[in-house]
Design goal:
Blueprint: H1 4-20, E1 30-33, E2 36-41, E3 46-55, E4 61-73, E5 77-81, E6 93-95, E7 99-102, E8 106-115, E9 123-139, E10 149-163, E11 170-180, E12 183-192, E13 203-207, E14 213-217, E15 228-232, E16 251-259, E17 262-270
Parallel strand pairs: 2-10
Antiparallel strand pairs: 1-3, 3-8, 4-5, 4-7, 4-9, 6-8, 9-10, 11-12, 12-15, 13-14, 13-16, 16-17
Amino acid sequence: MIRPRRLIGWLGCAIAALASVPAHAAGFAAAATPSRFELAARPGEVLSRSLQLQHVGGDAVEYVLRSADWTLDETSGLRFYDALQPGSCRPWLRLERRKMKMKARSRRSLRFEVHVPKDAKVGECRFALLIESYDQTAIPLIKDAPISLPLSGRLGVIVYVAIDGAQPRLQMIGVSHGKDAGEKIPFVKVRNAGSAHGRLEGVLQGRDAAGKTYYFPIATLPVLPGQERGLALIPAEDLRSKKRPKVVYPVTLTGRLDWDAGHFDVEATVK
């Protein structure tokens, strides 16, 4: 008889091992173009688009296609939800098919439609298109463990639809520091007071306490409506060593960061 505590421990180890297995080990070898859709629509409009799916594996496979709601925050990162979340627009979605059989090294097109209701308000519809494969072969992930788990893989394509002229309105709060991979780096804190997601783009020049000059491209993660987010400024790798440079703080940052409807001129010192 397996004690509940021991079973939970085995399950935790198995799930951890599963998470560390590369996708191709599970027979998952999909690529999608484009990697995301950024669309606009009026109330009552029907949008029709196609996703190009490529199977790069050497064996035939069947992919399962579905949608999910998602969130993106600094605490838990990107999370997908099967259940409809409050305010979800997934009922607007129509998928051409739910399963797709593909031959080795082949391409197919998946069409989908977004049916925007006539009474839709100004705002942003967001959902994910998930492409999944499921290997039915049960593999014992831990030697002599009493359980075996099948392996699976997943690819997500994010769809944004700005309804009735929804726009981002980004506000830069300031520049500070944080941690990335255990190393100190600058962050730009941004708030989005608009009705659609926005992104910052650009590279800042930094001069550190040792007199060396580095370049800091900003992370292009989306800032969702009503969200306040810190965007990392990770120093560009050294072209010779291919390693992140060791910046000596304080560092003075200057330059310009752009977004859809404007820009921010930056001149700040991070201690």
